[in-house]
Amino acid sequence: MVRIATVNDAEQLETLNNEFNGKGETTLTNIRDSLLNNAQEIVIVNDNGGELTGFVCVQMKKSFCYDEYMPEITEVYVKPQFRKQGIAKAMVAFAEEYCRKHYPFHKMELLTGKHNTVAQTAYTNMGYTEDGEIHFAKRI
Questions:
Q1: Which pLDDT band, with edges at 50, 70 and 90, does 58 fall under?
Q2: Nearest one of 33, 34, 42 to 60, comparing CA atoms
Q3: Mean pLDDT of 11-39
Q4: Residue 109 CB neighbour total at 10 angstroms
Q5: What own/partner pairs with CB < 8 Å and gap ≥ 24 does 21-25 have?
Q6: Which of the listed CATH numbers 3.30.200.20, 1.10.1520.10, 3.40.630.30, 3.40.190.10 matches domain 2-125?
Q7: In contact, 75 and 55? CB cutoff 8 Å
Q8: What's the predicted TM-score (pTM) here?
């Protein structure tokens, strides 16, 4: 079942995030705090009878320059043994519908790795296209 994450999911989300982003990127305390207090992020999980098998994070970007929100899917992870079962697609569809119901916007954005061709193919199959933007980052 795809649903919004709750603070009760924090321990399993820590495990999934360690698998996805590497151990030490955040702490259980920070995950709990974020689930309770971070109003700009929506965390969606796939719950398989109490076991979380994946998550999607959506950042709700808002600028004074635009009337609408600009939701951006920044993280998509499904445990390897649960891949190719439509879980990522279901979580992304849930994210789109949730945002549609709760925020004014006309476009979802999605961030993925330049060399992650498997994910790019999946996102293309979900209707996402490259928009010509180039993502820059700087370590500070």
A1: very high
A2: 42
A3: 95
A4: 16
A5: 21/75
A6: 3.40.630.30
A7: yes
A8: 0.92
